[in-house]
């Protein structure tokens, strides 16, 4: 684990920590979709998408959605 300068310990999620819906949201995010597009594709609200993204950032130790997407594309996430 690495230490964040202001966030404390940063952790990476293991496959069993991500829900199926979080995985779907992450896959669409890394395919280039934004939250509004993801909401439409999955037939869920924009608010629900932002909640999933917040949970993903917390589980994966990402400070931003951009960092989350980069980590996923680089293979740093399950």
Task: Determine the mean pLDDT.
Answer: 85
Number of helices: 4
Beta-strand percent range? 5-15%
The main sheet comes to: 2 strands, antiparallel
Write the layout of secondary structure elements.
Blueprint: E1 2-4, E2 8-10, H1 20-30, H2 35-42, H3 46-60, H4 65-73
Antiparallel strand pairs: 1-2
Helix pairs in contact: 1-3, 2-3
General description of the model:
The protein is mainly α and 78 residues long. 55% of the residues lie in helices and 8% in strands. The protein contains 4 helices and 2 strands, in the order ββαααα. It has a two-stranded antiparallel ribbon with strand order 1-2. A hairpin with a 3-residue loop joins strand 1 and strand 2. Helix 1 crosses helix 3 (46-60) and helix 2 packs across helix 3 (46-60). The longest helix is centred in the C-terminal third of the chain and has 15 residues, at 46-60. It is globular and about 30 Å long. The model is unreliable at 1-10 (pLDDT under 50).
Summed up, what is this model?
With 78 residues, this protein is mainly α. The protein has helices spanning 20-30, 35-42, 46-60, 65-73, and strands spanning 2-4, 8-10.
Main attributes of the structure:
globular, 2 strands, mainly alpha, 78 residues, disordered N terminus, two-stranded antiparallel ribbon
